[in-house]
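Table 4 source record.
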Amino acid sequence: MRYVIGIDEVGRGSLAGPVAVCSVCIPANLKLKTKNLKLGKLRDSKKLIADRREKWFEYFSANKKVRYAIARVHPRKIEEINVSRAANLAASRAYKQLFARHEIDAEKCAVFLDGGLYLGNKRKSVKEYGAHTVIKGDEKILAITIASIIAKVVRDRWMRKLSKKFPGYGFEIHSGYGTKRHIAAIKKFGPSSAHRLTFLKNIKNK
């Protein structure tokens, strides 16, 4: 094994927008040279403020040793198959896109996914891909940590674009999650086509 592939998702619990998955391939012995870049300690995306995530994203995008691919599954598909299956579908797409876009030898890669994610399903993920799902993998495996940051930044940027198409909901602030402001906007304007209607069933009780 010479490379590590890490896969992570973002947007599973959001009331609107897609679920996004990033697949990252890095050398197994990758050393991040960040001493003079004032990036701070590398953490999973949930533990970094937005500005710091953006800076790490720019660093990874410029690092030729970090290769990645992003896949999204949008609200109507999420409603059709449920969000867990949608996340796994996006994971499979991101994994395949990684190989389609970059020259990577699968036999030289170890594959890890953050807890709850599989390539296809649990059995297929292990038997066909030799992939391992790791609980809190974004805290334990560098490639997954990187994937978590890239997925979060890309999805947040996507939600900012959606905020221009659907003004008033505050997507640019909360990225579609169920904040008080977002719930109030849904009650005022009704759901948009960017919302996951099956996620809004209990909105009136909040």
